[in-house]
């Protein structure tokens, strides 16, 4: 059982919802990224999805695409992020971290080498948005052999009919990615989205986290009991950019959000 699974169990015992954040590694630089990770840990963030910059991030929106481009221009790469992770783990940082990256980055590293590096660096989870279920076996086996990070599964409305198969070997938590945004004037999720969430709950006992575009801490109050936590990335990345990657701004935002979502 790794840090992600331990945190999910703790939240279940406390009957609390999880607050998961996303940020792109390498901004404003490696040392700045370390400061932002510490700030989020201090704010009570439950899991950090750390994006590895990629030259063609087709699954991301414009804010994260721009962040990825800027990080690459600063020289960020997978090797440097692994080294950074080793450093912060040695410095006592214990926040659960999941790498979010494209499969080409893993292939360039080598699947077995990547799995071993995750274990060495204290990476707890891996999210690969462009790796379909049918092509996951090599990575899954490598991670399992190393007793390394868990492969986090993602579902959406397009996953209808495939959810039980997708979640058969899922660990950690399940990510549900929707396009809705809570505006305070309507229910958080559409009927189809609720059906998708129910299908996930039926197929797996894992906690269900939703990335649905919740932007402000006050909107977290609209999150229904149907889910176990929320994921926020785009608005946080925009806030970081506007604050010149202030660790204090990140800590204040994440602290408020965590209080509201719990």
Can you tell me about this structure?
The chain is an alpha/beta fold and 262 residues long. The chain has helices at 3-14, 30-43, 62-73, 78-90, 103-109, 111-121, 137-145, 163-166, 191-203, 234-242, 247-261; strands at residues 18-24, 47-51, 97-100, 125-127, 150-151, 153-155, 174-177, 208-211, 229-232. α2 runs parallel beside α11, α4 packs parallel to α6 (111-121) and α6 crosses α7. The chain is globular, with a radius of gyration of 17 Å. The protein starts with a helix and ends with a helix. 45% of the residues are buried. Residues 182-186 have low confidence and may be disordered.
Secondary-structure blueprint of this entry?
Blueprint: H1 3-14, E1 18-24, H2 30-43, E2 47-51, H3 62-73, H4 78-90, E3 97-100, H5 103-109, H6 111-121, E4 125-127, H7 137-145, E5 150-151, E6 153-155, H8 163-166, E7 174-177, H9 191-203, E8 208-211, E9 229-232, H10 234-242, H11 247-261
Parallel strand pairs: 1-2, 1-9, 2-3, 3-4, 4-5, 6-7, 7-8, 8-9
